[in-house]
Amino acid sequence: MTKRKEAFKLIPELTTEFETRIRFNECDPLGIVWHGHYIKYFEDGREAFGRKHGVSYLDVAESGFSTPIVKSMCEHKLSLRYGDVARIKTEYFDTPAAKIVFRYTIYDPNGDVACTGETIQVFVDKKGELQLTNPKFYEDWKRRAGLIS
Amino acid sequence: MTKRKEAFKLIPELTTEFETRIRFNECDPLGIVWHGHYIKYFEDGREAFGRKHGVSYLDVAESGFSTPIVKSMCEHKLSLRYGDVARIKTEYFDTPAAKIVFRYTIYDPNGDVACTGETIQVFVDKKGELQLTNPKFYEDWKRRAGLIS
Amino acid sequence: MTKRKEAFKLIPELTTEFETRIRFNECDPLGIVWHGHYIKYFEDGREAFGRKHGVSYLDVAESGFSTPIVKSMCEHKLSLRYGDVARIKTEYFDTPAAKIVFRYTIYDPNGDVACTGETIQVFVDKKGELQLTNPKFYEDWKRRAGLIS
Amino acid sequence: MTKRKEAFKLIPELTTEFETRIRFNECDPLGIVWHGHYIKYFEDGREAFGRKHGVSYLDVAESGFSTPIVKSMCEHKLSLRYGDVARIKTEYFDTPAAKIVFRYTIYDPNGDVACTGETIQVFVDKKGELQLTNPKFYEDWKRRAGLIS
Lengths: 149, 149, 149, 149
Known about the structure:
Chains A, B, C, D: Belongs to the 4-hydroxybenzoyl-CoA thioesterase family. Chains A, B, C, D: Keywords: Hydrolase. The first copy, chain A, has about 150 residues and is α+β, with helices and mostly antiparallel strands. Chain A has helices spanning about 5, 40-55, 55-60, 135-145; strands spanning about 10-20, 65, 70-75, 85-95, 100-105, 115-120, 125. The interface of B and C includes residues 23, 40, 43 and 83 of B.
């Protein structure tokens, strides 16, 4: 039986870091980043991951699929402010399910954790059908990444 | 010869008003609406115009065209703040050219002018070709609106 | 001992509904609302709740506090599209902790659930100190709302 | 008499280039950048200019002023798409008036002009008063930049 803690495995090699400078227009009247903008930073991190590891949105699209977000979660620890250069760490969590799971940690300029989060994506084909098993292109990618044999 | 002041005519009947409540997430660290968000308010006004006068984005799309913005301009007079209910007046400016011209006036809760602006749109067909004359659906709309006979 | 299911109680009277029309600029190249914009809709719902029930952002600010979001979560079931009029239901969840918990359900034009979500807010005073117990103004509000005696 | 063409002078040394990668969430259902987002790119360019030339938003704020945008204009020539790396050129236009004028040119990945634009900013002090002459800090900056003697 697969236990839950085995089902989601962090793969240290499958990690990407991306820096972003906080924009004036992302800060609210309290002078801090409005909480909803962190979802954009997660996307920045996820996209950087995709470019580095060959599984970008466009790679997915070329394979005939899209990968809509079905769940996103964000926990805020510290505020980011205008002008801060934040570091977004994106980690891939392996799962046997037909899903893509990323975890995010955003660090402030002092290296302290400003925010953590997670997104879950599924596979949808061109007809809009949810895929219950991993598409071939994704199995191939996992094989190349050494996640399956 | 058509003089410029005749070429663009304000048609008082072709005016729409739309109210919007300023969101917290639209305000910047100075406590006022970040200037770029006014372009969204112009779109809110233009869309309300389209729904009222039967020339919405979806009407245009069904006719096989899109109407990308080629120019937008915004002049700020007063600030809007979180919680303000602003009124967006959208006015149609008639022109013989194959363009759609709207002018916008945004009023603050006191009825004072916060901002004025203008957008110019052109017609592009499904192949991406710029139309040098008005598409038939738009000529028909102008006829129904009493702008041409 | 307080059990978790007692700790968070849905108060049916403390519910608000708010309608929003999906904007063109909120939709992505897939033609659906980009997932991060749902956080704005949650804020629209929360603000409508605050106005209706007398516990708005400005009420909170006048009492000398701010209520930053420390956690937000969003689960997507169905897509919303440009032009859809969506209905945002915001429900208050009572908790004895010094937190404000809202749950959100967004319905598509057919009345089907497009998305559910939750936000958790804490109280921070003007010096930026996290409050470990409910501020007096909030206890008063809960008393008026019949949540405590 | 000062002629208009003398009043606004392009200063070639006062130019900055900044690259930005077009985000998925900045593209609309037509697959292109929604026109309102260019105002953000202009801000990215202006901020890069401020950091390079020592006249950033924070420099201005430390001097006791803010510089709200009073006019912005944007003309679109070509579309930008998701994944494009665009180049934003920001040019300073000198004027004797108490204003800051920037012109922007955004290039697509082929080096073709996607968009041009302009912003005009004024000086407002901490009491919210519009300054009719350049504040001392700005005169000093212009002197250091060789614009005045």
